[in-house]
What does this fold into?
Amino acid sequence: MAVEDKHISYRIYLVAFVILMLAIAITVKLTNIQWVEGEYYRQLAKERSVKNFVIPANKGNIYSSDGSLLATSIPNYKVRFDAIAPNKVDFDKNLQPLCDSLAKLLGKPTQFYKTELLRARADKNRYYLVARNLSYTQYMKIKSFPLFNKGAYKGGIITEQRTIREHPIGLVAERTIGYERIKPDGKPDGKGIEWAFKDYLTGKDGKRLMQKMAKGQWKPIRDENEVEPQDGYDIISTLDVYIQDIAHHALLKQLEYYEADHGCVVVMETKTGEVKAISNLGRNQEGQYTETVNYAVAESHEPGSTFKLVDLLALFEDKLADTNTVYDSKGGEITYYNRRVRDSKKGGYGKITLARGFEVSSNTIMVQAVYDNYKNNPKKYVDHINRMKLNQPLGLQIKGEGKPIIPQPGAKNWYGTTLPWMAYGYGVSMTPLQTLTLYNAVANNGEMVKPLFVKEIKEWNKTIKKFDKVVINPKIASQETIDKVKVVLENVVKRGTGSKLYSKDFSMAGKTGTAQVGYADKANLYYASSFVGYFPADNPKYSCIVVVHKPSTSKGYYGADVSGPVFKRIAQKVYTDVPSTNEIKNLEKSNLVQDKNYETYFTNSSKNMQTIPNVHGMPGMDAVALLENLKVKVKVIGIGKVKRQSIQPGQPLLNNTTIILELS
It folds into this structure.
């Protein structure tokens, strides 16, 4: 019995010892939690019940120079359905009206949605996709539909929101407007204005401290945000939507007709360098033309005959030749170091002046003029190119500019044929925009300005940063040289390779170009057709370049045929949007316009006008009064002065005519 009591005592002591150890362990743990790990657990509890929520900042918009919206951020919604959430009564009662509503909004048959929702219910699908890419208006309508209007817990509706970037004018100038995105590897990437000015557009996200409540709901702790979101700034581009639309469709029409691989067009304001239009179209796998590569900015290639302008500038400036210097085309073929230079015209042009050789784009004439005068000192010729900064990138506001290649005497890539080949645009490489900048300098009386894509950064009506004209070279040549070159460029259109483009109604000046690309491999050889110049010729306001790669040779490949018409179409359209000097003079002769007083114009016009008048630039009220007095019905869009009129001046006045006036 004593032995048994002793065993019981041992057990009691053992249990007591275990309890004591547990108590000590608990005490140690509690002490550790309270004092050693206390801060960690307090922080963990706080994070699970209180945390900062990110308030996304609104991304800035991109506008055209005339105020049109080019890129903006809009909310995009995806709606899913938790088929288990609604009870049986609510589901059965609201299924039919819900499906009717979805069918009306989304376009599919009612039975389709009914079958899908019943299947989701049977499969206990808690994340069935109802619709994606919904606008805010569509999203609000779906939220009000039967069953869904009961909310997430009783109605089963699940919504997901994200912000997407939209281009209201569609694909026009899409590549230059650009984008910003995250690549699959998580790295940021982008193109165009969006990418170059992302730091201004993006803004800064805000933060708001919120506490977790019942049923997973979060409630703000304070009335004020911890950090207020700062919206991104708006970008005011140099693009003009009207000119951009003209350029885009003119290029597209030509690419489609000639079944070309790709092409580009740029229209630039002469004095400021502001890019008013830029279109880059390439054919995709489906055969459609889309904007994927900014060819005008990135594609550096041999320019061909458009580079011959450099020859004239150098020769005239050094006074080694003049417009009336005569050269012999030698049957249309000459040889340098066993390599031949040929003219496009078989048999050549005989003996002609240097100016005429440029007008007809004679390779033999231009090469002889350069080689004979610079063969003993090619550096003198190349120095002209370097002084004009054609050997350097332009340093554009957007990234991805192609690098120009100008061989330098004494370098490894300088050969005996380099100088004569450079004279007609081979062995050198330039982007279309770099070539345009050169021609724009001639139009601008020698002042070379940098192309601009963005002219202002704004926060509402407050200017944050302004981009003014940047002068690359104040004078690429003497005024005497510039004046001579201008005459020759105008004659190219009047009586040279661009004579098909000539119009007595408006003046243009420029140069055609037809370059062989990939001639090292005859199997892959193709033509790049170009035209670059400016208009009006006597007082240039815009310069323009058009380059079309790989046109169908069965339809044509010369620059005057392929690219020239695009240039002419743009110039013609722009001309018809401004008052014609001839029209004003004719009106003056007929005593319809004695001065610039619109009241006088109104009085005389109402008596004598038999055609639609030019009201461009008039105050809207004056234009409406004038036209209505002529029994013309007027529809007005906007406020201010007349920017465009739907019926062009000079059209006959007809009964019940309606004209649309766009004011700015």
Summary: Residues 578-607 have pLDDT under 50 and may be disordered. The longest helix spans residues 2-36. The CA atoms of residues 63 and 236 lie 5 Å apart.
